[in-house]
């Protein structure tokens, strides 16, 4: 490995540097000669020292221990002029500038940064920002700052144009590669089709010698040449006759042989019909990750007790449907598993219910003074974070982060303490506390209070008719029946309802249309 040569030289140079007496000129000269040998040796080995770290180390020793800044500048200038790949990297110019900043002067420091700004091509922004800060803090005039700003903008304009062109070339190259892949696939399909057609043609051209009967006529062939693609589908009449003449015992024996032969097919879901005797020992697992397999389920659920059978439901393709049935050896194991309903598995809360029973809400809906409700929680907050935040207010019994079916947080949680005083202290101290860039809201758990508030909001959305079943956005129905007023008044009079006071006092009945017609015409 070429890198091992570099490590050996660096270790040896470190040892010499520690033993060198900097006041003794002979020892200093010996160390310089060793650095020259190391640089020469590593330059003859490919990829041994790609970043010239030995030369940079030498320059730092000259500036720091020998107080020879001119020699250090000479080494760096030699490196930047002979190696264009190193000169194009901004980090090397920054290393050179740091050396000037520590052991040189402001003049050479500014000069190095200006050279790096115009020479580096990968990330000149880093050099430009440092140069502008230096001119702003230690520049003698505004003209020098304007000059540096102008150079910086000019360089960045050129760099931006190069980056845009490079991005366009990369996009064109990706597009060309994609087109070439499509063309290669098309050519492969075309070649496969030609090969199949050629094979069919060769099979058709092959003819066997025809038999001749006693009269000199050629006997036709009993079977036709069939392409390999169709041979498996075609069945000649002679084969059918042979099948029909086989004894029944031989056919049955062949059927049994086929049934016993194993097939390498994908594992599909297996139909299961239980007798109901093991339902009490079986739990239903739902909301599983579709990538979860039987081994992962056994590992997660086996800690509750011995598992006699585990049936992961699959579709016709052999893929998981997201639910399973787990049969335990004892009912105690089932009870223990039910206690861990909504346990996390593969990033999702797993629902564990009894066999044949619907999932019920397993938490209290009344006020619980030893439990607090926390909302406005950041999605990045985990159960461990909540445990760490609220454990300082008292002994925790349970921490439940409310999540969606996919395992993502809903932004709220329930924290249960062993006593009411701890819960009250948590409400007093933690309400409005900043947790992960959000101020949480803490209150005593009271689901009924929230449901009543929701009912009040529902009542406020009733329409003006007062019907709670109609939405306020639904079209208002006209309450008047489509019956003429005269007929309705006549019906009301007959039923004795809604009679006018004048009619009751006079005892006369209401006038009909005929009475009004006679009055207008003057008839009596």
TrEMBL record:
Highest classification ranks of the organism: Eukaryota, Metazoa, Ecdysozoa, Arthropoda, Chelicerata
Source organism: Medioppia subpectinata
Pfam family, one: RRM_1
Keyword list, A-Z: RNA-binding
GO cellular component: ASAP complex; cytoplasm; nucleoplasm
Name of the featured protein: RRM domain-containing protein
Domain RRM: from-to ranges: 281-366, 370-447
Residue ranges, compositional bias (Basic and acidic residues): 161-197, 232-268
Bias type Low complexity, positions: 495-513
Composition bias type Polar residues, residue spans: 201-211, 460-471
SUPFAM superfamilies, A to Z: RNA-binding domain, RBD, TPR-like
């Amino acid at each position: 490995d070429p890198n091992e040569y570099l490590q050996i030289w660096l270790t040896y140079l470190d040892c010499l540097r520690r033993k060198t007496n900097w006041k003794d000129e002979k020892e200093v000269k010996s160390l310089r000669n060793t650095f020259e040998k190391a640089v020469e040796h590593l330059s003859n080995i490919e990829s041994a020292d790609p970043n010239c770290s030995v030369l940079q180390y030498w320059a730092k020793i000259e500036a720091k221990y020998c107080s020879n800044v001119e020699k250090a500048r000479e080494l760096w200038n030699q490196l930047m002029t002979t190696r264009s790949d190193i000169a194009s990297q901004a980090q090397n110019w920054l290393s050179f500038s740091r050396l000037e900043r520590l052991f040189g002067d402001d003049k050479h420091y500014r000069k190095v940064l200006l050279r790096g700004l115009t020479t580096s091509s990968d990330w000149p922004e880093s050099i430009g920002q440092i140069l502008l800060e230096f001119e702003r803090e230690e520049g003698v005039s505004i003209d020098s700052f304007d000059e540096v700003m102008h150079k910086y903008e000019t360089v960045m304009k050129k760099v931006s144009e190069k980056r845009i062109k490079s991005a366009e070339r990369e996009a064109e190259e990706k597009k060309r590669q994609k087109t070439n892949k499509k063309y290669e696939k098309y050519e492969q399909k075309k070649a496969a089709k030609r090969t199949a057609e050629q094979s069919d043609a060769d099979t058709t051209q092959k003819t066997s010698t025809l038999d001749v009967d006693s009269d000199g006529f050629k006997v036709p062939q009993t079977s036709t040449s069939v392409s390999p693609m169709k041979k498996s589908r075609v069945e000649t009449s002679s084969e059918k006759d042979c099948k029909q003449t086989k004894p029944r015992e031989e056919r049955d024996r062949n059927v049994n042989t086929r049934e016993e032969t194993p097939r390498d097919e994908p594992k599909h879901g297996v139909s299961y019909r239980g007798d109901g005797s093991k339902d009490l020992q079986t739990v239903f697992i739902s909301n599983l990750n579709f990538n979860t397999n039987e081994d992962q389920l056994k590992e997660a659920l086996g800690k509750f007790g011995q598992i006699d059978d585990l049936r992961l439901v699959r579709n016709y393709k052999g893929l998981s449907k997201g639910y399973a049935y787990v049969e335990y050896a004892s009912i105690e194991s089932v009870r223990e598993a039910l206690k861990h309903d909504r346990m996390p598995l593969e990033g999702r809360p797993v629902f564990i219910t009894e066999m044949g029973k619907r999932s019920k809400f397993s938490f209290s809906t009344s006020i619980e003074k030893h439990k607090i409700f926390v909302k406005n929680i950041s999605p990045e907050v985990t159960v461990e974070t909540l445990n760490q935040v609220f454990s300082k207010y008292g002994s925790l019994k349970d921490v439940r982060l409310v999540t969606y079916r996919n395992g993502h947080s809903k932004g709220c949680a329930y924290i249960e303490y062993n006593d009411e005083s701890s819960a009250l202290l948590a409400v007093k101290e933690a309400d409005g506390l900043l947790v992960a860039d959000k101020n949480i809201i803490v209150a005593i758990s009271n689901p009924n209070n929230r449901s009543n508030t929701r009912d009040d909001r529902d009542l406020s959305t009733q329409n003006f008719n007062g019907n709670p079943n109609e939405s306020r956005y639904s079209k208002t129905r006209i309450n008047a029946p489509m019956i003429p007023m005269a007929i309705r008044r006549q019906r009301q009079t007959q039923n004795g309802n809604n009679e006018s006071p004048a009619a009751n006092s006079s005892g006369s009945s209401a006038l009909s249309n005929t009475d009004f017609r006679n009055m207008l015409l003057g008839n009596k």
